[in-house]
Design goal:
Length: 276
């Protein structure tokens, strides 16, 4: 039996300082391992316990660990996970499939063809974002991998009415809007993590898939898996979103990340025993 374990990264498996949510007294706070450095500064963390569990999980020959993220390839490759390097990684919300760190050209061509057929062009959406965003709260505007666009904003200043209007405008053109921390993403609806997950499952012959994620962009990934977990924070938790095969965790912050890796390890071990 081959078990495919696909996990979203930011605020699911790894956490910035702002997202750690260390609400316990300092003397009992978990020890942390830095897994990402950016511009010579530590950026993302796991608990040491989560790191040890992930290393154990990736050494299991029956497990295929697939980091699954909206990050670009360059942003993803800053991360140094413990354990065996992942052969497959899904970046750009499914737009890039990396095999041993190299983008799969056939997959990218398939994605490009589908986007051209099913939704409005990126240029139109990016221009709309720039035209409607208020400079009072807009900090950066970016295009990722020539696939989708996102804004970095001062979240407290962004009107909810603007977000709602943007979602309606984008939806009519085949795009989805997602708010994650200080970033507002506009992503083509056909650009999904689940499509890339199915491709990796096909290539590896995986018989079971496990997944985790915290945002609306992860909902399709969770629904595509045989079993999934979401933390007690994020867009999905705020919307009280769940599904019959998805476990809603009570833990939030970096301790939720630890519990997710523990759940992956426990379920993969159970499946291995059943197979034996």
């Amino acid at each position: 039996m081959t078990v495919l374990v696909a996990s979203d990264l930011d605020r699911t498996l790894i956490y910035s300082t702002a997202a750690l949510a260390l609400t316990m007294p300092d003397p009992v706070a978990p020890r942390l391992l830095c897994v990402e450095v950016h511009e010579s500064k530590p950026l993302s963390y796991m608990t040491e316990t989560a790191a040890a569990l992930l290393a154990e999980l990736t050494e299991d020959p029956s497990v295929v660990f697939v980091p699954t993220t909206t990050r670009t390839r360059k942003q993803y490759q800053r991360i140094r996970f413990p354990g065996r390097p992942a052969r497959y990684a899904i970046c750009a919300n499914g737009g890039q499939l990396l095999v041993d760190g190299v983008p799969d050209r056939d997959w990218r061509r398939q994605v490009a063809a589908r986007l051209a057929e099913e939704c409005a062009p990126l240029e139109e959406v990016h221009d709309h974002l720039l035209a409607t965003a208020d400079p009072a709260w807009l900090r950066k505007a970016r295009v990722a991998e020539d696939l989708f666009a996102y804004l970095v904003v001062e979240r407290a200043l962004v009107p909810d009415e603007w977000l709602k209007a943007l979602a309606e405008w984008a939806g009519a053109r085949g795009w989805t809007v997602s708010l994650q921390g200080r970033k507002i993403y506009a992503v083509p609806r056909p650009l999904t993590k689940s499509a890339a997950l199915h491709e990796v499952a096909r290539r590896t012959g995986a018989t079971t898939t496990l997944a985790a994620g915290d945002s609306l962009l992860d909902a399709d990934l969770l629904l595509a898996a045989d079993a999934g977990w979401r933390p007690g924070h994020g867009e999905l938790a705020d919307a009280r979103w769940t599904a019959p095969t998805v476990t809603a965790l009570a833990e939030a912050g970096v301790l939720a990340g630890e519990e997710i890796v523990r759940a992956f390890t426990r379920e993969a071990g159970r499946l291995g025993r059943l197979d034996a």
